Amino acid sequence: MRLVIARCSVDYTGRLNAHLPLATRLLVHKGDGSLLVHSDGGSYKPLNWMSPPCRLDVEIPDAESAAAGVLEHWRVTHAKTGDALLVRIYEVLHDTSHELGIDPGLQKDGVEADLQRLLAEQVEVIGDDLTLVRREYPTAIGPVDLLLRDPAGGTIAVEVKRRGDIDGVEQLTRYLELLGRDPHLAPVTGVFAAQEIKPQAKVLAADRGIRCVTLDYEGMKGIESGAPRLF
To answer: Which segments constitute the Endonuclease NucS C-terminal domain (predicted)?
Structure first.
């Protein structure tokens, strides 16, 4: 992972256009190829980003940009959509690279872990005639919550959250990209399952071809009007 603090401007072109004017920001270039642009506010969410599969090319600025003080251009292009980020670097304040290794993945607890367990036992919530392959199916970038098979032999990757937001959809997108390269699993489709799914996440999921499923936690536990039915 490369961490760069730089004075920069950022232009995004693709399904929509967006511009970040010149300011000091943190640029995170991750081992999976993604680039995230962070400010000192906004919590954990980047101001803009490019998800894999994508490629970063460092370019020498043209005469006009050089005259304006630009040191180099970072051009990040998505391999499938052609969407692009152009980062104009004016000054580098910090630049380090770190090898993080393989992450063991998030250890879930509480309601989210219960949701995953219950859904593994009740895969019919996702669809008819599905079979469970495995919970916590391992990949190089972390475990997929549930891996299912449909009657036609296709694979379904399910990401389970308490509250589904855009970050969860992005996480599932990365899993789908990786799993789809395995001929033993392809074709692979995605299901984003949560108790509550934010409207923005639903829009992004639809754009990525991912189906959303809203989970009834109390119903899955078998509780009705406070009286337990199953346990």
So the answer is: 111-230
Over residues 44-61, the pLDDT tens digits come to: 789 999 988 899 999 999
C-alpha–C-alpha distance, residues 201 and 168, integer Å: 8
Give the rounded percent of residues in the chain with a pLDDT score beyond 70: 93
Give the separation between CA 150 and CA 224, rounded to whole angstroms. 30
pTM of the full predicted structure? 0.56
- pLDDT tens digits, residue range 134-157? 999 998 888 999 999 999 999 999
**H or E stretch at 101:** none
68 in Cβ contact with 83 (< 8 Å)? no
Do 93 and 6 meet the contact criterion of CB atoms below 8 Å apart? Answer: yes
Residue 146: strand pairing partners: 135, 158
Total residue length of the chain: 231
Q: Decide: helix, strand or coil at residue 83.
A: coil
230, pLDDT greater than 50: no
Distance of CA 103 to the CA centre of its chain: 15
Instruction: Dump strand ranges (E) for 30-71.
Output: 35-38, 48-50, 54-59
Judge whether 85 and 75 are in contact, CB under 8 Å.
Answer: yes
